[in-house]
Automatic annotation (TrEMBL):
This is ABC transporter ATP-binding protein. CDD domains: ABC_Mj1267_LivG_branched. PROSITE patterns: ABC_TRANSPORTER_1 (PS00211), ABC_TRANSPORTER_2 (PS50893). GO terms for molecular function: ATP binding; ATP hydrolysis activity. Keywords: ATP-binding, Nucleotide-binding, Transport. Residues 2-250 form the ABC transporter domain. SUPFAM superfamilies: P-loop containing nucleoside triphosphate hydrolases (SSF52540). InterPro entries: AAA+_ATPase, ABC_AA/LPS_Transport, ABC_transporter-like_ATP-bd, ABC_transporter-like_CS, BCA_ABC_TP_C, P-loop_NTPase. One of its GO terms (cellular component) is plasma membrane. It holds the Pfam family BCA_ABC_TP_C. PANTHER family: CONSERVED COMPONENT OF ABC TRANSPORTER FOR NATURAL AMINO ACIDS, CONSERVED COMPONENT OF ABC TRANSPORTER FOR NATURAL AMINO ACIDS-RELATED.
Amino acid sequence: MITVRNVTKHFGGIHAVDGVTLDIARGSITGLIGPNGAGKTTLFNIIAGVFPPSSGQILLDGEDVTELQSHELFHKGLLRTFQIAHEFATLTVLENLMVVPDQQPGEQLRHAWFDYRRVREVEARVAERAREVLDFLQISHLENELAGNLSGGQKKLLELGRTMMVDAKIVLLDEVGAGVNRTLLNTIATSIQRLNEERGYTFCMIEHDMDFIARLCDPVIVMAEGRLLMQGTIDEVKNDEEVIEAYLGTGRKHERQATS
């Protein structure tokens, strides 16, 4: 579904992403891991159209989308969430979902004035869909709560819910589990699995929680110092010497050799 071909991104003399080539298969939940500063979020930003690569190419379903911006990719079904949730704090949870679908007639003044019945009908359909999303995510009880009052985990669920308000093809999840308690983390993981299995969502996620990655992701892609280090199953990744060295340093590698 997503093909990244020899992508680089330079910020002055810093090579944040350095010649990365990878594929994200349709229907997969792909994990993207690596130590801090590995270039993971920069790569996400390039794929999501936040900024273009210095060189290389991004393909979505075989179409070159390298130069497209985030709002253009949104219309093609590519969405992303953020490590720090970007909710509308003064709107309710329901309203946060309802603002996602674009081209609603109520957004245009002439419809609001002269076609009020149509505006109300569309709003009712969008509200119904939003309530179905809340029910799917098991947060219906928060419908009328201001989004700014939610816990960190609830805000991550709300961000996931916003991707369900449009016809998403692929969702990039940036540390969806960061700072989330175990109960809500389990709810988030179950929701991701259901969206993948029942609705055909493709996911790629940056995550540091290896248990969370192990539960959800196959394959797992490892980056270090802006480069692709390896790709494989979670067991292959956890037992790879280069990965161990990138995360833990040569001391752990030598320790393992000494005890083997």
